[in-house]
Amino acid sequence: MKNPFAYSNYVTGESFCNRKKELSELLRYIKGSQNVLLYSHRRYGKSSLIQQVFREIRKKNLNIGVMHIELYGTISEKDFITRTFQGLNQLESNFERLLKSVSNALKNIKLNLSIDSATGSTSVSPSFEAFNEKIILEELMKILLKYSQNRKLVIVFDEFQEVANYTEEGFEKRLRSFIQQHSNICYIFSGSRQHLITEMFNSNNRAFYKLAESFPLDKIETKHYIPWVRNLFSRKNVHLHTERIEEIVARFENHPMYIQNFLFHLWEEPGEKGFSLKIINKLENAIIEKRSLEHTVLWETLSINQKKTLKLILLNNGSNLFNADSLKSVDLKTGSLVTKALSSLIKKEIIVKNGSYLIQDIVFKKWLQKTLSL
Ligand SMILES: Nc1ncnc2c1ncn2[C@@H]1O[C@H](COP(=O)(O)OP(=O)(O)OP(=O)(O)O)[C@@H](O)[C@H]1O
Ligand SMILES: [Mg+2]
């Protein structure tokens, strides 16, 4: 039987665990054309949730057009426009009709056609020679508005925080002004650099201020993992005890991607007699080992005070870092050194502040504990 666990791309269907509450809430926003800001730490399952909600829309035959635009790697307004044009084929599967609507909107503008070698689908995007992005963006938004007049749409801009790095003057403002006119479209802005994306939407001097309903995505609760894991393993005639599942989930702190990663490897083990703690330890070590080179390189890039601060976080579970005894235990002379190091570590996305300070990547944390013999 095929391994149902996967961890390098989004997951849907049987590989997707629960999230029932999130799915129904998201669907409610989509039906009401309410914009949403979906954010979480890395690899918590934002893109999977979006794909799963798209599946539900199709399964329930809801008359809602869906479009998923991946903005990762875009560095300018042009890139944004090109990606969005390329995504139009998700709304219009008939290529001739698509070409017609685009060329009607972009009269006199040369179009580039391309075929996606993986899916075979054909897309169209404008060539920008001699035309300014402002005009093309406006036309693109008119096309979206037109499609939304026939049926509701949901348009996802994934990794939306990339937009904050574009250097074009006023792009966020212009985009906002179009989006506000689209009353039949639910825009989902999704992103993982929590700080950046919440700042874009929550600070009153930014264009996207209060444009979307906040939708933080949390980890998956243990009680949801238990039946999901048990069911999938029972197909292989392996009975996994609740305590074993709890143990695995706890080791990876409920993190969706790492739990799938672990279960993928566990699935490959002969488990008719159940899985011993020895096997669980072996697989956990293998996961840590596999990324040890990457983590060594990361460690080497850190300053001595950043290294000490990481140790301080581990020793104190992320809180009371400025206490004199704590500082002394890692040989840090003053609290201001810690403040500085914390701020650099947050910028590098190695740690996050969530009440206390946490090391984002659980496997990096495990590697540190091992390496520093903590
Ligand atoms: N509902 C789920 N059930 C089980 N595993 C999940 C679920 N959602 C996500 N995962 C696991 O997490 C991994 C990452 O998911 P996904 O790419 O959707 O996250 P993301 O938040 O969009 O990540 P990124 O921050 O890289 O954009 C998946 O490959 C899968 O292993
Ligand atoms: Mg994603």
CATH class wording of the largest domain: Alpha Beta
Number of domains: 3
Write down how many β-strands occur, each being a DSSP E stretch of 2 or more residues.
9
Order of helices and strands: HEHEHHEEHEHEHEHHHHHHHHEEH
Termini separation comes to 40 Å
User: What is the CATH T-level topology of the largest domain?
Assistant: Rossmann fold
Give the CATH superfamily of the largest domain: P-loop containing nucleotide triphosphate hydrolases
Assign an overall shape: globular
Largest beta sheet: strand ordering: 2-5-6-1-7
Small-molecule components bound: adenosine-5'-triphosphate, magnesium ion
What's the CATH architecture of the largest domain? Answer: 3-Layer(aba) Sandwich
Mean pLDDT: 92
Task: Classify the helix fraction into a percent range.
Answer: 40-55%
Number of helices: 16
**Which structural class do the helices and strands define?**
alpha/beta
The poorly predicted ranges are none
Q: How is the biggest beta sheet arranged?
A: 5 strands, parallel
